[in-house]
Amino acid sequence: PVTNIDLVHGDVVVWGGAWRLAHHGVKELRDGSHPATGRRRINITFRCAAGGC
């Protein structure tokens, strides 16, 4: 099944467990921009190494 989630500036998505293996992606960037970043998508990923968490 496919689930579409619309995100706007400032939104954060957090998932774990079985969901961490799910395919995820960004379909497209919408028109508009933020004064500080312009028309960009910023991705920050945190992961735990084996035995580290």
Automatic annotation (TrEMBL):
Residues 3-47 form the Alpha-ketoglutarate-dependent dioxygenase AlkB-like domain. It comes from the Bacteria. Coiled coil: none annotated. One of its GO terms (molecular function) is dioxygenase activity. Keywords: Dioxygenase, Oxidoreductase. This is Alpha-ketoglutarate-dependent dioxygenase AlkB. It comes from Tistrella mobilis.
